[in-house]
Amino acid sequence: MLRFAPPLIMALLVGPILAGLVMAVLPAFGYLPALGGHAFSLDPWRQLFGQPGLARSVGVSFASGLVTTALSLAVVLLFLAGVSGSRLDRWIRRMVAPLLSVPHAAAAFGLAFLIAPSGLLARLVSPELSGWERPPDVQIVQDPWGISLMAGLIIKEIPFLLLMCLAALPQLDPERRVAMARSLGYRPTTAWLKVVAPSLYPLIRLPVFAVIAYATSVVDVALILGPTLPPTLAVSILTWFNDPNLSQRFVASAGAVLQLGVTASALIAWWCLERLAARLGRRWLDRGERGRSERPLRLAGKGLILLATLTAFVGIAGLALNSVAGFWRFPDALPQGITAVHWLRALPTLSGPVASTVLIATAATLVALALTLAALENEQRTGRQPAQGRLLSALGLLYLPLIVPQIAFLFGLVVMMESLGIRPTHALVIFGHLLFVLPYVFLSLSESYRLFDARWSQLALSLGASRNGTFWRVRLPMLLAPMLTAAAVGLAVSIGQYLPTQLLGAGRVPTVTTEAVSLAAGGNRRVIGVWAMVQASLPLVGFIIAVGLPRLLWSNRRGMRGSP
Amino acid sequence: MKAGHRLKLDEISIVLDGKTLLEVDVEIAPGEVFTVMGPSGSGKSTLLAYLAGFLAPAFQASGQALLDGRDISCLPAEQRGIGLLFQDPLLFPHLSVAGNLRFGIPRASPHKAGRIEAALAQVGLAGFGPRDPATLSGGQKARVALMRLLLSEPRAVLLDEPFSKLDRQLRHDMRRLVFDRLREAGLPSLLVTHDREDAEEAGGRVIELTH
Lengths: 564, 211
Prior knowledge:
The complex is a heterodimer of chains A (564) and B (211).
Chain A lengths: L4 H24 L14 H7 L4 H29 L4 H15 L2 H12 L4 H6 L21 H22 L5 H10 L4 H8 L1 H7 L1 H13 L2 H6 L7 H9 L6 H40 L7 H29 L17 H42 L5 H16 L2 H15 L5 H26 L2 H9 L4 H12 L1 H17 L2 H6 L7 H7 L6 H29 L11
Helix pairs in contact in A: 1-14, 1-16, 1-17, 1-18, 2-14, 3-7, 3-9, 3-11, 3-14, 3-15, 4-7, 4-15, 5-7, 5-15, 5-25, 7-11, 7-15, 8-9, 11-14, 11-17, 13-14, 14-18, 15-25, 16-19, 16-22, 16-25, 17-19, 19-22, 20-21, 22-25, 24-25
Chain B lengths: L6 E10 L2 E10 L4 E5 L6 H9 L6 E9 L2 E2 L10 E4 L11 H8 L7 H11 L15 H14 L4 E5 L7 H17 L4 E5 L2 H7 L3 E3 L3
Parallel strand pairs in B: 3-8, 3-9, 6-7, 7-8
Antiparallel strand pairs in B: 1-2, 1-4, 4-5
């Protein structure tokens, strides 16, 4: 049975993506019999290029992919280069981890509430410093250049890249490398950048690509923070797809193919930048500069990551404040009163979407966890760890759903489901979520599973336990903590999904995320505050259980604390 | 338990990438501790992995391992009836001391609780059953590991430098305890070590692997 897990995972990840892409490409060239497209033509493309503002949409999507990734990566690397193990450094690391669980949409709402003309920042400086008695008439949120969109993405991608780096670093033994370089006269930050960063980058390359792909094609954050006239390409595609005039579906398909091209070009551009950076970096290494004044670099690293982290947290606090705010005139920094009325009013409408969210997230995570465990256990039993070369390709496939833009293939997947006569249901949405939950669950569990000391299972077998018994009685309990963490990651990923829920559920499977995002257009801050808070706290519940349950279960087992 | 088992290593040779790592041909009598000595990298742990059923696919082995006349080299590890004692006691951290001992007892055995308590008393650990293994001292852990091995009723035992991590005084006591128990139980045992004192106190035949 276990033998079938790896091919099943591959089929699950690759099949829908390929099918989805095919079903996006065919209508893009006019072929979709269900809607009367029987012959191939270039009409969809003509219509697409006739859309007003298309060049700008494409430009913003492309730029936000590169800018978001470059800035997030630079901040993370600068911070890591300057880490000295001080209390501030440790505090920053601890602050960043929970940010990963905050859904993109909630973080985006938080940022919007912070920087909007009538937001918290403007209120803090008004009227004393700014002289504003009413909100200034400038467009900060949803600015036409996509700057607030990029900012919203950066505060979420920094935690992601930081955790990816922290996971990869131990195998590089950075302390010894830096100590070595310092003994040769290099200053610590320069030493890190010269002897650790070049080996670290190849290990985080796939996550970096995932960030580029995500930032070029994101929909939910773009609906909240992105430009509107015209919106980003991904948002435009969604609009065309949902157009009551079904012939717009052809335009949407062409748009999906274009999105694929935009993401691919962003990745190629990044690849060129990598080359350039490698060449410049080589020269910098060869020159042998030891680095003199490093303070500015170190301060920049700490300062920027702190700025991003605090922005996210203050944003979330702003959401909380808005959700309980009574009457709140403009320049006042705080509302005049606190009220539960927004929560009470939202409560009856909350229960359905919350139940849906939990059901979908739990189901997708359990399936992902079972498949992951089966594949990893199979690896252990056959004694075949993926070899170095094959590991790359297998890992590459795991990253496929994270690197192919969601909108490009989900959309074709919906077309295919429609033509197969499969109705949108919770099951279909769960299947869609699985595509994104599975890679994250696998990536987060595989390391601890593979590093698990083989002697434990050898011992159990030599004591007469069967292979299954060894799995259930030794491996599973001893790996409970990393398993629960992987499950919490899976839950968080599922809870934050907007597009798969919206598209595969055909808008008929409301979750807290789809509901919260759909409130963006209305602009009622109190209601948005309530929904975004619910959205942000659901994943947190998962992480609290993941941290708390092992402590509770193993409260009198000292050997299980800080377990493998 | 004094049945007296026999372990015969019949012209076993292990090959890696076309190079012969080691060749052994020996019959270990009931209660005998046969010692294989050699520096690290000489393949002595590979021999244990082969006998226990954990040989990595990269190695090729030929010959037969006969336990009481039955060829075990093709059996899965859990059906070989071969017990292991590692460098570390490896008490399962999620189980109590009693839970660790119970883990090894064959499923159908009656009076499990009584046997566990008796086993603990034999090594001076009466009443330690409910304890968290992490709270035990190094010597106590090693004794629990030994009793867990014996309760699992193996027919032969492999010892992988089981004393190398104990300090001097304790090492001597543990050697006595382990070798006496194995002899008492009539178990043929194979000890791999690079410590000459281990070999001397084991009191059985010794072969040395070079390279």
